[in-house]
Amino acid sequence: MSFVNYHTKEINCKIVYYGPGLGGKTTNIQYIYQKTSSQNKGQMITLNTENERTLFFDFLPLDLGEIRGFKTRFHLYTVPGQVFYEASRKLILRGVDGLIFVADSQVERMESNIESYQGLERNLAEQGYDLARVPMVMQWNKRDLPNIVPVEDLQFQLNKKKFPAFEAVANNGQGVFETLKMVSKSVLLNIKGGLE
Amino acid sequence: MKSMNLLEKIRSVLDHKKSGISARIFLSREDGITIYDSTQNQTTSSVSALVSGVWQASEALVGLTNPSQNILEFRLGFDTSSQGILLLPLLLSGKKYFLGAIYKECLNPGQLKRQLVMIKEEMNLIFFEEPSLVKSKIQQTKTNSDQRKGFLFQEISDDEIDRLFTTGI
Question: Which residues from A are below 8 Å from B53, CB to CB?
Answer without folding.
Answer: 47, 56-57, 91-92
